[in-house]
């Protein structure tokens, strides 16, 4: 059937909606899948501070290219997003760039130092309306600080998104602790360093009756703990990254730092466990943890390299390959784990909505039968650290619409030059 977009919203749906299109741009949708615009709960945009790795503009162009209409920008910028002033700046830069909605994540602690609570209330009541708070990159390891943060955000329905990493168990760690780390001689990062924090935090969330979100869960044991916590009625949600759905610690054998990431790539058993957890709903969402880094920070020996990999432009493809093409998720499930559920966790308005008349025209049109080879030089992100470079992945984002306006059309980012991004959106997908 046809979907008519006009004045920023879905104006009509049905076999005849195209008849009302008038002068609208027509996008042929035969054989394609129309999804609500994707929402990322975990993106590193690097601005302010590391604009050499990514800017809000380049990162949100990458988001649009990947089918996203909203991203949550993590707080580990320079200066840290720990005040109302900084989060408002990030929010405004995102709005002015116009490629995807930018929702700044507020830091839990001042400067991510883990000592004093940041001004959570001021960030929540700022123009940026922050609801997600995280020290991501660092763990809120002090249980008292974590408890206070969980208690504080209840007042404005916020959520603490924890980067679960016990620092004392990961001092100097370079990769997953296991057979591969001992064979190749890199300091290991035990699964228990993640699992111990998750176990503590679900109990803390239960104790204070607050909402907890677990970032980039990566081990089979973590899935078990979340499953147990949910069975107890604890208000916890969890995310898995695309890379943890497919890549393993075996890749470290080549010492290529493009595979160095926090949390580290785990074993094939862990990959199977996170896929199973996503399929049965234990894991609520897929979030990219898009972590762009410059060549200087990545193209060096393993121990000196930064942790992190890009992901916005490959996330949907990896989810299709690992979950849809294997029969473990339907496309409706994809709409849930990459759009509706992350929007709900972040309390984002106007995103992650069902495709229905009157809803904002935030949509992505995907060709699931296409195949492409990932080439970082062709991506919109300013950084080249994709772990999928040279790899063939399924699916292609044909079009992305932000409030009815095409940010991507025929697979091409719609830059200012052609004027289409400024025009009021009107389009139809058949
Ligand atoms: N996920 C990553 O590997 N890197 C993140 C932060 C982090 O260390 O978690 C980054 O900001 O680069």
TrEMBL record:
What is the role of the protein in this entry? Catalyzes the reversible cyclization of carbamoyl aspartate to dihydroorotate.
State its Enzyme Commission number(s).
3.5.2.3
InterPro entries, sorted: DHOase (IPR004722), DHOase/Allantoinase_Hydrolase (IPR050138), DHOase_cat (IPR024403), Dihydroorotase_CS (IPR002195), Metal-dep_hydrolase_composite (IPR011059), Metal_Hydrolase (IPR032466)
List positions binding Zn(2+) 2.
136, 163, 216
Catalytic machinery residues: 289
Instruction: Give every Dihydroorotase catalytic domain span.
Output: 32-219
Cofactor binding: number and manner = Binds 2 Zn(2+) ions per subunit.
The cofactors named for this UniProt entry are:
Zn(2+)
What keywords would UniProt list here? Hydrolase, Metal-binding, Pyrimidine biosynthesis, Zinc
Q: What is this protein called?
A: Dihydroorotase
Q: Which GO terms describe its molecular function?
A: allantoinase activity; dihydroorotase activity; zinc ion binding
Where along the chain is substrate bound? Answer: 44-46, 76, 262, 293, 307-308
Question: Which terms does the UniProt entry file under GO BP?
Answer: 'de novo' UMP biosynthetic process; purine nucleobase catabolic process
**Gene Ontology CC: one annotated term:** cytoplasm
Q: Family per UniProt? A: Belongs to the metallo-dependent hydrolases superfamily. DHOase family. Class I DHOase subfamily.
Superkingdom as given in the UniProt entry: Bacteria
Q: Which residues bind Zn(2+) 1?
A: 42, 44, 136, 289
Enzyme type, top EC level: hydrolase
UniProt pathway: Pyrimidine metabolism; UMP biosynthesis via de novo pathway; (S)-dihydroorotate from bicarbonate: step 3/3
Q: Which reaction does it catalyse?
A: (S)-dihydroorotate + H2O = N-carbamoyl-L-aspartate + H(+)
């Amino acid at each position: 059937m046809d979907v008519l977009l006009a004045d920023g919203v879905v104006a009509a749906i049905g076999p005849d909606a195209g008849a009302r299109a008038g002068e609208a741009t027509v996008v042929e949708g035969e054989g394609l899948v129309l999804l609500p615009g994707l929402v990322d709960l975990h993106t590193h945009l690097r601005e302010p501070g590391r604009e050499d790795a990514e800017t809000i503009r380049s990162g949100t162009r990458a988001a649009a290219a990947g089918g996203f209409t909203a991203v949550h920008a993590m707080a580990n910028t320079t200066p840290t997003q720990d005040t109302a002033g900084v989060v408002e700046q990030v929010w405004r830069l995102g709005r002015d760039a116009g490629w995807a909605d930018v929702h700044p994540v507020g830091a839990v602690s001042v400067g991510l130092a883990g000592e004093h609570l940041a001004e959570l209330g001021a960030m929540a009541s700022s123009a940026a309306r922050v609801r997600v708070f995280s020290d991501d990159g660092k763990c809120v390891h002090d249980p008292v600080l974590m408890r206070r943060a969980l208690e504080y955000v209840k007042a404005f329905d916020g959520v603490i998104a924890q980067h679960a990493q016990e620092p004392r168990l990961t001092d100097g760690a370079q990769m997953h602790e296991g057979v591969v780390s001992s064979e190749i001689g890199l300091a290991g990062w035990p699964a228990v360093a993640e699992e111990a924090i998750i176990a503590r935090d679900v109990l803390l969330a239960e104790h204070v009756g607050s909402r907890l979100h677990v970032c980039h869960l990566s081990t089979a044991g973590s899935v078990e703990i979340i499953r147990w916590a949910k069975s107890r009625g604890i208000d916890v949600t969890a995310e898995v990254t695309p890379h943890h759905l497919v890549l393993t610690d075996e890749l470290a054998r080549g010492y290529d730092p493009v595979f160095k990431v926090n949390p580290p790539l785990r074993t094939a058993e862990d990959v199977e466990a996170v896929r199973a957890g996503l399929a049965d709903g234990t894991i609520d969402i897929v979030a990219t943890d898009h972590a762009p880094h410059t060549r200087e920070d990545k193209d060096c020996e393993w121990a000196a390299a930064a942790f992190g990999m890009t992901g916005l432009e490959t996330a949907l493809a990896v989810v299709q390959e690992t979950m849809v093409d294997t029969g473990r998720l339907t496309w409706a499930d994809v709409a849930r784990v990459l759009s509706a559920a992350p929007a709900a966790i972040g309390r984002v308005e106007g995103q992650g909505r069902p495709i229905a008349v009157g809803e904002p025209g935030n949509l992505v049109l995907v060709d699931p039968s296409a195949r492409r080879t990932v080439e970082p030089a062709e991506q919109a992100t300013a950084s080249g650290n994709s772990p999928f470079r040279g790899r063939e992945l399924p699916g292609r984002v044909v079009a992305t619409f932000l409030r009815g306006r095409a940010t991507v059309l025929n697979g091409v980012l719609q830059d200012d030059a052609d004027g289409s991004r400024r025009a009021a959106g009107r389009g139809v997908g058949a």
